[in-house]
Amino acid sequence: MAETLLRVVLLLAVVGVVSGFARRFGLIRPVVLVIVGIGLSFLPFFPEYALDPDLILQVVLPLLVYIAAVGLSVPGLRSNIRPVMLLAVGHVLFIAALVGFALHAVVPDIPLAAAFALGAIVAPPDAVAASSIAKRIGLPRRTVTILEGEALINDATALVTLRVVAAAATGAAVTWQAVGREAAIAAIGGVAIGAVVALIGAFLHKKTDDKLLDNTISLLLPFAAFVPAEYVHASGVAAVVTCGLYIGHRKPLLMSAGSRLQMDSVFRVVNFLLEGAVFLLVGLQIRSAATNIGLDLGTVVAATVVVVLAVIIGRFVWVYPAAYLPRLSRKLREREGPRPPGQVAVVAWAGPRGVVSLGAVLSLSIDFPYRGLLVWITFVVIIVTLVGQGLTLPIVARWLNVHRDDPQADILSEANVRQQAYRAAVRRLDELIEDSEVAGYVVDRLRTLAENRANQAWERLGDPNRETPSEALRRLRLEMLRAERQVLIEARDEGRLEDELLRRIQGELDLEEILLVKTARDEATL
């Protein structure tokens, strides 16, 4: 027990140190974690970590997928549903077939169904890695939405495909009717169960204002959707995605401000630890994966190179026709707008594999045909696509002149909406004070507060190097908060203020500071 605890603490400590290093130097965290994991795997004194596929697929995956789904824009997904589905379904099936035939051509003895199983395993780009890389390098919002939407939905396609071909590879009779029935049950059943759980979750969120209870519900919902869906052989991932999209879209109406702030913080911590641990473990597994292949070196190298090339080149082969052939329709071109070649190229190059591929290949039974080879190739595909493409994607994006959306346009849009919200707030204030005896200074303060908030966005339209009034206010107010906090601590230490009162006042100051800092960070990303 003590040894297991020590291993977990060591793993999380490495995740924390490496993540801090990556953030300090502006590096892509998943890429750095994988590289460090590979290096640690060859150190004789560093402990070996055995991965449980059930832990990956039934605990880690639902949580990571749910967190990603809650943060995805439903209107953005809806407006890009055609490219997302072409990638999430069509691309996965295409890569599964391409990899299967390519591997079978190099290793003729491997059953075709087993080769297709590897194709299904390495076909889906990872939601967490895709989101981390896309947002870190500042891609256009539409491109980020397409990559995140694809990575969320393709997990269900890949796992259902794997379930069918793995059954065929182990000797079960599989017909086209059975495949169609399996796919229909997985998709429709998963969405239906996810929708039911989402409605129940929304009802529970709306009925409570307790922040701790709200966060408990949030952490349980992905499992409440995943477990029953898997029990009836539907897609647990589809259920989690459906539930997460609904709750995330309705969150402003379902939860109090305090609950939303706390949930965001909890999700960031969970995502930070789980994501970091998984990518570090991918690197740590590479040495053990290389020792259980059971084939000659030449065959292994040839099979690995062919599969890696099929995954990378096959994405280009699919993405370009899928992006431009449907646009031969004039109505489609008018509805979707322009499709810049640079953004299409970035989508084709951005295909990092991760959690799903890792858990899927480890879930193969010990007696699965050529299991050692499939595990090795999967780890290499994850590392090459995550490290190789992750490190080069910023270069490709800059070379193709693909960058984030115009920040001035975002600021202008925000300013207009804030102005409308300000007018609505003032009208409501006038209605409330019409027949009441509210002190004049209170009304003036409320009007000033609303007006200042409305003016914040307009201020950012000026010289970007000049400190705006709102920025000066935040800077000065933060210094004032530090001074207030110091006096409170001194009063507590001298016995003039009870510790319980200090914590309550400290909570108020902390909440104000969080709001000030968060606003500054949000503005910095525009």
UniProtKB/TrEMBL annotation:
Gene3D superfamilies from the UniProt entry: 6.10.140.1330
TM helices/strands, residue ranges: 6-23, 30-49, 55-77, 84-106, 112-134, 183-203, 223-248, 269-288, 300-323, 344-366, 372-396
Alphabetically ordered keywords of this record: Antiport, Cell membrane, Ion transport, Membrane, Sodium, Sodium transport, Transmembrane, Transmembrane helix, Transport
Primary site of residence: membrane
InterPro entries xref list: Cation/H_exchanger_CPA1 (IPR018422), Cation/H_exchanger_CPA1_bac (IPR004705), Cation/H_exchanger_TM (IPR006153)
Domain Cation/H+ exchanger transmembrane: 12-399
Membrane topology of this protein: Multi-pass membrane protein
Subcellular location: Cell membrane
Superkingdom field: Bacteria
Family in the record: Belongs to the monovalent cation:proton antiporter 1 (CPA1) transporter (TC 2.A.36) family.
Main function: Na(+)/H(+) antiporter that extrudes sodium in exchange for external protons.
Identification of the protein by name: Na+/H+ antiporter
Organism (species): Tenggerimyces flavus
Lineage of origin: Bacteria, Bacillati, Actinomycetota, Actinomycetes, Propionibacteriales
